[in-house]
Write a structure and sequence with these properties.
20% strand, 9 helices, three-stranded antiparallel beta sheet, alpha+beta, 8 strands
Length: 323
């Protein structure tokens, strides 16, 4: 009798141990347990620790409440300004309602991943290339709102969404590189021109100060010579004054003709002096009046004699021949 009682006790203890082992569940700190009794959801969500379920009647589903980091696969799309890009992102989310995550959606991880991909494609089509490259914070907020709207009904809260990388075609990269290079060259030229302007103003002030004191220019010249010869050079460089070159250039140029005054009349050249004919005797009246008298041949002209003072003979008169 005692032996049978001992066997029954051992069998009961063994059955209890088996039942306890089958019904015992341990829920971790970062998990919550959702109990389904005969397929129906129990209102109580089991917290962390040891819990019991009815074997064969109840089923415990553990839901992770930690923040999940999920990479979004790279998506190819065309931006609003017709540029083909490839964008990938990363999403951070967590479950806030374990019962809804089990009942409302079959696989909340897969659902969040698909929603993130479609939202990322939509954001690419609505944005410009400059926004994708420089204004990512605004795009991240818009992408988070697009994913969070349907995820609320699944008991999932989107914590953060970040666009990780934007891949551009090689032609677009070269174009952007040329644009950036041109922009930097423009800025460098503007800065250089500004520096030249400031330096010219300072040099003008220095020139005005040195022009008041000629000795200052000579001292500056000597200081330059000392600075050049300070490096143990065998060649000494002496500056040549530019003013001397200008003086020599002016000396080689011909002197300009002085203009005549406007009020004085131009002087006419003096006419040449008339040639004086040789002195000849006038014919007598008797010889001129004698008829039939033959004229002798004219004599050779003698050397011209000096004209009498105060008398002149016209240039067009001819000498008279003697008869």
């Amino acid at each position: 009798m005692v032996q049978e009682l001992l066997i029954a006790v051992v069998a009961a203890v063994s059955a209890g141990a088996v039942y306890t082992a089958a019904a015992a569940r341990v829920v971790k700190q970062y998990e919550r347990g959702v109990v389904l009794r005969l397929g129906r959801l129990r209102n109580d969500v089991r917290g962390p620790g040891f819990t019991m379920v009815l074997p064969g009647v109840e089923r415990l589903r553990k839901v992770n409440m930690q923040i999940v980091t999920m990479p979004v696969p790279a998506q190819d799309g065309i931006t609003r300004d017709n540029v083909t890009v490839r964008v990938d992102a990363v999403i951070y989310f967590k479950v806030v309602d374990a019962a809804s995550a089990v009942v409302e959606v079959e696989d909340y991880r897969f659902a969040v991943s698909q929603m993130a991909q479609t939202s990322l494609r939509s954001i690419i089509g609505k944005s410009d290339l400059d926004d994708l490259l420089s204004n990512r914070e605004k795009l991240n907020q818009g992408l988070e709102l697009m994913i969070d709207s349907p995820a609320v009904g699944w008991g999932v809260q989107i914590d953060r969404v970040e666009i990780k990388d934007v891949s551009l075609p090689e032609t677009m990269k070269r174009s952007m590189a040329r644009q950036a290079e041109a922009d930097r060259e423009r800025r460098a030229r503007v800065i250089n021109a500004d520096a030249e302007l400031q330096a010219s103003k300072k040099l003008a002030e220095a020139a005005s100060e040195m022009s008041a004191q000629p000795a200052a220019l000579q001292l500056r010249l000597l200081q330059t010579v000392v600075a050049v010869a300070a490096e143990k050079n065998s060649t000494l460089v002496l500056p040549f004054p530019v003013e001397l070159l200008r003086f020599l250039e002016r000396a080689q140029q011909p002197a300009p003709a002085q203009p005549q005054p406007m009020d004085s009349a131009p002087q006419e050249p003096a006419p040449p002096a008339p040639a004086e004919p040789s002195a000849q005797t006038e014919p007598s009246a008797s010889s001129a009046s004698a008829p039939g008298h033959l004229r002798p041949a004219p004599r050779a002209p003698s050397a011209p004699s000096a004209p009498a003072s105060g008398q002149s003979r016209p240039s067009g008169s001819k000498p008279l021949a003697r008869h």
